[in-house]
């Protein structure tokens, strides 16, 4: 006997007869019955209602859209209508069925009339195949069955995994390039003249790092730090940054080709999402009028102002992290622990990075309420909000989307995507932007430091540059995101699922003597098993996309400072693909399948990140790195520039040249740092600091302006060359393969020929 097939299951608490909730539930189910739905009720600790749509609904769909589902997916029981299509249509009708009280399903779920609504994981061949051949750790390095994923979860999920697999595959080349860059830094460039001079500078006295109780220090004490810096900051990094700009373009262009091939095989290349939504509205209600496009310059202005305000708040959080680092640096340098004093700067950077990660978690990782996703899933504005349990960025983005009054769900999703990515970007990158481009450049100089609240000095860069601070910050954030966050992402659903099974599975009733056991409905166990799984919502797949796009940003934008970022991303993605698969197949309820022929607005977001990557890496090399000052010194100020010395390294003397002189008597009156240090007298009562200033009036030297001009020239040259290479790569690699174009050409030709033959026969 074949098991009954049900499109959806609604779950409700058992309410008292005649209660308001029971009446509302009955009204909703009656409306479904009027539309021809078959409803089956099973009572347990909850009430379960199986819902099956009448066949004429799917015939209407096929007629209106000329049967776009010509390739069968898993449809033997339903007359050539794929299961994913059935679920999608039924979900739309359920969400848009209105009771006599003018309430929809989302309103009833807010009032706890219904607790849940979900399609079923059924025991079918496709599901068993995916569980064995995809959703297991042992198949981690095997090719993904994209066609099977599409058959079970729909095109949207299949395209996500196809994109993620393609991204992971191309990360192999970026990871190898990053690894070669780091290896070159540790071998070829390990004996650099710059780091050698720092290690030998045991007579160079540096100015104190804080105002009180901080000693003068010897430059050679930071020998290890200098070697690590040059491992990252060398000529190979410039080549790697250019390579990553090209890689980002090639990745997207090749993905466009891959996507065109895939959706052509699915007969969805010319699919129109707006037409589908209109068809579903008419199937649900023939009298339904389309929602018209709206635009209000006033609303757009309000949204723009609020977005800018939110960005200012996120930048303010980054400023709070800066203040923490400044205060921590001052406290660590005055600590009684010698280890903490000696590595005060590194400890301030590392603890600041951990605090930054915690900020990211607070702003981005808090669980979303069911009411919020129900609100988001409809194009109309929500009636109530519960921001206390929403993560901050998402709640603000949802609120702003409602102000815009988008016409359709897809338009609403696109608007939401742009806003949430903008907020997440500033949450993740504001602190990194400060370290990369402002740290050590706005702090003033000895005798005239810039202070926070007139008390704490801003941080300074190490004499070998600030790029190591950026390296440490990125390494800590990426490692924490890819370990703690991923572990929690898997453990929380796993624990939640087992707790739900434990609490919601009913105890078997004890049998009386002579009593026969009642035969259990075969649907009951299946529905209970699905109910015990974790909830999914419209944010479920969105979260996975957002996580990967943010990771892509880390992998490309500041990759010049952290060449190992692609390697970490590669390791993470290999695990991520199968972790997502296991969650979807074993721990979560079945997602409502969505039809799609591309990854949507995420492609534009990725292209924007590619442009930001060119700008970001150009700025890192021009401003953060010491590459430009070293080159200016070599060609304008080194011994090589004055006479031909073939046997000499042209960077000889760079460190001494890059340090300015400060007279100790010019310290501010309240400064007691290092006073009375016995070694100062023979050194001439002066200390050194990183800058290009005159020794008499501390104004900028001409060399400072030469370096400034060279930085600007390099930035313009790098970005124009990189953008030109990106444009050439985009032109060189066609978005659509020739075989796809020829296939459509042949199809059009065949259709026109048939049309002409029909006209000719009609005339005859």
What's the SSE blueprint?
Layout: E1 8-12, H1 20-34, E2 38-43, E3 47-52, H2 55-64, H3 83-96, H4 105-110, E4 116-118, H5 125-133, H6 146-153, H7 155-186, H8 193-200, E5 205-206, E6 217-218, H9 223-232, H10 235-265, H11 273-284, H12 297-333, H13 338-342, H14 344-364, H15 370-376, H16 392-404, H17 409-437, E7 444-445, E8 448-449, E9 451-452, E10 456-457, H18 467-504, H19 522-531, H20 539-556, H21 565-587, H22 602-624, H23 627-637, H24 639-642, H25 654-658, E11 659-663, H26 680-683, E12 686-690, H27 702-732, H28 738-763
Antiparallel strand pairs: 1-3, 1-4, 2-3, 5-6, 7-8, 9-10, 11-12
Helical amount: 55-70%
Major sheet: size, sense and barrel closure? Answer: 4 strands, antiparallel
Shape: elongated
Identify the strand order in the major beta sheet. Answer: 2-3-1-4
Average the pLDDT over all residues and give the rounded result.
Answer: 83
Classification by helices and strands: mainly alpha
Computed over alpha carbons, the radius of gyration is 32 Å
Task: Say how many strands there are.
Answer: 12
The low-confidence parts are 67-78, 366-374, 378-390, 507-517, 678-682
Counting H and I runs of at least 4 residues, what is the number of helices?
Answer: 28
The portion of residues forming beta strands comes to: 5-15%
Q: Termini distance?
A: 56 Å
């Amino acid at each position: 006997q074949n098991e009954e097939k049900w499109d959806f299951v609604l779950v409700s608490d058992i309410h008292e007869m005649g209660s308001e909730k029971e009446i509302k539930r009955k009204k909703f189910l009656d409306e479904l019955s009027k539309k021809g739905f078959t409803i089956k009720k099973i009572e347990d600790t909850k009430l379960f209602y199986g819902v099956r749509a009448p066949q004429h609904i799917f015939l209407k769909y096929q007629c209106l859209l000329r049967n776009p589902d010509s390739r069968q997916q898993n449809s033997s029981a339903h007359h050539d209508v794929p299961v994913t299509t059935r679920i999608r249509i039924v979900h739309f009708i359920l969400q848009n069925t209105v009771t006599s009280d003018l309430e929809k399903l989302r309103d009833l779920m807010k009032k706890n009339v219904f607790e849940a609504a979900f399609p079923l994981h059924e025991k079918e061949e496709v599901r068993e195949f995916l569980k064995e051949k995809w959703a297991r750790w042992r198949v981690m390095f095997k090719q993904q069955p994209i066609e099977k994923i599409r058959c079970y979860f729909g095109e949207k999920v299949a395209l996500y995994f196809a994109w993620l697999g393609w991204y992971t595959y191309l990360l192999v080349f970026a990871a190898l390039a990053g690894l070669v860059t780091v290896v070159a830094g540790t071998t070829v460039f390990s004996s650099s003249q710059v780091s050698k001079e720092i290690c030998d500078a045991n007579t160079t006295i540096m100015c104190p790092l804080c105002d009180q109780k901080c000693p003068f220090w010897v430059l050679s004490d930071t020998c290890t730090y200098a070697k690590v810096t040059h491992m990252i900051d060398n000529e190979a990094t410039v080549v790697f940054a250019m390579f990553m700009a090209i890689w980002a373009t090639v990745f997207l262009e090749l993905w466009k080709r891959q996507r065109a091939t895939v959706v052509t095989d699915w007969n969805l290349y010319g699919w129109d999402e707006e037409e589908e939504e209109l068809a579903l509205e008419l199937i649900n209600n023939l009298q339904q009028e389309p929602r018209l496009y709206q635009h209000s310059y006033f609303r757009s202005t309000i949204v723009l102002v609020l977005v800018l305000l939110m960005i200012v708040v996120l930048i303010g959080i980054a400023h709070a992290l800066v203040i923490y680092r400044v205060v921590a640096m001052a406290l660590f340098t005055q600590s009684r622990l010698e280890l903490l004093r000696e590595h005060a700067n590194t400890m301030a950077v590392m603890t600041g990075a951990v605090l930054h990660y915690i900020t990211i978690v607070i702003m981005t990782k808090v669980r979303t309420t069911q009411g919020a996703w129900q609100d988001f899933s409809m194009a109309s504005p929500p009636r109530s909000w519960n921001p206390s349990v929403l993560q901050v960025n998402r709640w603000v983005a949802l609120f702003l989307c409602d102000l815009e009054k988008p016409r359709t769900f897809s338009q609403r999703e696109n608007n939401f995507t742009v806003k949430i990515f903008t907020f997440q970007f500033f949450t993740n990158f504001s602190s990194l932007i400060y370290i990369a481009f402002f740290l050590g450049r706005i702090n003033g100089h000895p005798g005239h430091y810039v202070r926070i609240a007139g008390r704490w000095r801003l941080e300074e860069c190490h004499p070998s540059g600030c790029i190591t601070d950026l390296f440490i910050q990125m390494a800590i954030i990426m490692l924490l995101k890819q370990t703690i966050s991923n572990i929690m992402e898997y453990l929380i659903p796993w624990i939640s699922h087992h707790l739900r099974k434990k609490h919601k599975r009913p105890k078997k009733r004890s049998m009386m003597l002579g009593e026969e056991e009642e035969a259990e409905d075969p649907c009951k166990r299946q529905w209970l098993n699905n109910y015990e799984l974790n909830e999914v919502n419209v944010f479920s797949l969105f979260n996975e996309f957002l996580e990967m796009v943010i990771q892509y940003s880390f992998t490309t934008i500041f990759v010049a400072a952290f060449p190992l970022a692609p390697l970490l991303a590669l390791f993470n993605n290999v695990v991520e693909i199968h972790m997502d698969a296991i969650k979807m197949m074993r721990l979560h309820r079945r997602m409502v399948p969505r039809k799609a022929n591309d990854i949507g607005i995420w492609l534009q977001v990725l292209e924007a990140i590619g442009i930001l990557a060119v700008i970001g890496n150009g700025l890192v090399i021009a401003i953060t790195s010491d590459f430009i000052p070293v080159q200016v010194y070599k060609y304008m100020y080194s011994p090589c520039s004055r006479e031909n010395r073939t046997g000499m390294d042209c960077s000889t003397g760079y460190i001494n040249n890059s340090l300015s002189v400060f007279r100790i008597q010019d310290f501010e009156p309240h400064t007691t740092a290092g006073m009375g240090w016995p070694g100062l007298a023979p050194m001439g009562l002066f200390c050194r600091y990183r800058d290009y200033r005159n020794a008499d009036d501390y104004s900028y030297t001409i060399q400072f302006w030469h370096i400034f001009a060279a930085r600007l020239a390099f930035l313009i040259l790098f970005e124009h060359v990189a953008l030109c290479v990106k444009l050439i790569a985009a032109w060189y690699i066609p978005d659509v393969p020739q075989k796809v174009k020829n296939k459509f050409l042949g199809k059009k030709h065949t259709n026109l020929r048939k049309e002409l033959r029909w006209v000719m026969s009609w005339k005859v």
